[in-house]
């Protein structure tokens, strides 16, 4: 039945993705997707109308690439394995390329206040006579060109950021799924914890991927903004920038607190999902004994503990975002007040340039930098949780002293006549520090088609023997 369903879904071919053959103009203007909008105007979109994914976005390919780099990390004896390092090796070059594109966009954007300031100087009746009409036209052309470039570049690299985050999420989810299939029963990982990793932790790649480059672009932009403000108002520019720098240690401290709360929230979420999973599995027994209210209270209490951690993170985020409202007004006020108190004259050009540069600075270092520190703290916690899961012990791929044969077909079914179970002097125990062996000197031979009954009192090791046969219980010696 499953194979028929899978084959039926594969037969529904989707149209090829036009992004594959799109030219530079179509990529910049996103016109390659217009045909899909035309179809949506005529009728409701269906599943078959959606384009097939790009080859670079396939889960199998992304999972293989990440798993290959992760295996290199595990096999490296000179340093501890790092999932973050493996992700950087796979997705780092592409992500850094668009980061430099964003840096270029921010540098072009910084020219706009200067160009507008020159135009204000030209139209000001009391302005300088050195600015002629040709210079004003040049500034206007440069302003239009810079706005056109920034308008085209920003959606481009933001889309690529989102795609890169999606690729990280898909690759991590594929790796987690493959790891879950190889886990040994010795590892005390519940289904709820694995579900939380796949559904919650990997989503951190999507939520903050747009902001991470601000962590290095922001300080560089701060230096350049300080230089341009120095050209306009001299020493007074340092007062406004210094006022902002006083908030950075507080932002770092609050970002660390968010990271701690995120880890506590993940633990509470794992517990709640585990309880829900166990309740769903035993819902018949719960209904039969009318235990709905006690178990509902249990879930309610677990959710309450989880909400407490989430509420604490929300409070800290609100404090970080409130800095944006406070900082920009306070910086402008301090700089202008210091400039006037020193006996200087403030004209329209200087006022506009100062406000514009501070707006650029507060957008990057105020709003986006706060978001970046928060999202980065949450991402590092999620990566650490995924890494700890990937470092769990695998069950052996193949038992020692066994042979691997291909299963033949007989009348369309698998021919198992030549296969059997043979255990010779097998000794096993669940944990290495366990004093007594769970199984000791076990000999068992079961031929194909033979019915064998294993009996014994409770705790004799019947279930452990089955676990050893399916390679969940590791052997100390024997085969």
Account of the protein in words:
The protein is mainly alpha-helical and 479 residues long. It folds into three domains: 2-52, no CATH class; 59-390, ABC transporter transmembrane region fold (Up-down Bundle), CATH 1.20.1560.10; 408-477, no CATH class. The chain contains 16 helices and five strands. The chain has helices at residues 2-11, 24-29, 34-42, 59-75, 83-109, 111-123, 133-182, 191-199, 204-208, 214-233, 236-245, 248-281, 283-288, 292-341, 348-390, 462-469; strands at residues 408-410, 413-415, 421-428, 439-446, 475-477. The strands form two sheets. A three-stranded antiparallel beta sheet has the order 4-3-5, with helices on one face. It has a two-stranded antiparallel sheet with strand order 1-2. The longest helix has 50 residues, at 133-182. It is elongated and about 100 Å long. The model is unreliable at 1-9 and 397-404 (pLDDT under 50).
Brief write-up:
With 479 residues, the chain is mostly helical.
- Classified by CATH, the class of the largest domain is Mainly Alpha
The strands making up the biggest β-sheet line up spatially as 4-3-5
Low-confidence stretches: 1-9, 397-404
> What is the end-to-end distance?
37 Å
* Major sheet attributes: 3 strands, antiparallel
Compute the average pLDDT.
80
Kindly give the count of domains. Answer: 3
What's the CATH H-level superfamily name of the largest domain? ABC transporter type 1, transmembrane domain
Q: What is the strand tally?
A: 5
General shape: elongated
CATH topology term of the largest domain: ABC transporter transmembrane region fold
Keywords: ATP-binding, Membrane, Nucleotide-binding, Transmembrane, Transmembrane helix, Transport
Biased composition (Basic and acidic residues): 1-11
Region (Disordered): 1-20
Protein name: Multidrug resistance-associated protein 4
